[in-house]
Amino acid sequence: SYGGQESYSRFVSSMEKDFISGAVGALFCTFAGQPFDTVKARMQVSKQYAGTVDCAIRTVKGEGGLALFKGFTPAYASAAIENTVLWTIHGLFLRNLVSSNNEDSASQKA
Questions:
Q1: 71 CB contacts (<8 Å, ≥6 apart)?
Q2: How many angstroms separate the CA atoms of 59 and 64, rounded?
């Protein structure tokens, strides 16, 4: 059990940090990976490109640099849900494990 309001607020604060960290991590992963996913999807649908670089260059020249980020919102939404749940639950289990280990060692010393 947690030792009062201070421990509880620290616990909730840690959960919020895990949640926010998951969302920010998903944002950066999606930002870094979306252009590759867009090029890959275009190459799968159309055989008009000579290769990956040709597809990327023609996309940027024809539609602008932001075209590489088409589909960013749904990709980010799914990654954010996955990462926030994953890291929030991971942190929760880790804190409970550490807390129970501390309680066990304290009871063994007594």
A1: 34, 37, 38, 41
A2: 7
Per-residue b/e over 5-18, b at no fewer than 16 CB within 10 Å? eeeeeebeeebeeb
- Tokens read off for 42: 């275009």
Say if residues 96 and 14 touch (Cβ distance below 8 Å). Answer: no
List, as one string, the DSSP characters of the chain.
---SHHHHHHHHHHHHHHHHHHHHHHHHHHHHHHHHHHHHHHHHH-S--SSHHHHHHHHHHHH-GGGGGTTHHHHHHHHHHHHHHHHHHHHHHHHHHHHHHHHHHHHHH-
For residue 72, what are its two tokens? 């960013």
Global pTM? 0.74
For residues 44 and 55, give the distance between their C-alpha atoms in angstroms, rounded to a whole number.
Answer: 11
Q: For 50, phi and psi rounded to 5 degrees?
A: -80, -20
Q: Average pLDDT for consecutive 10-residue bins of the chain (110 residues)?
A: 57 84 96 98 96 97 98 98 96 85 62
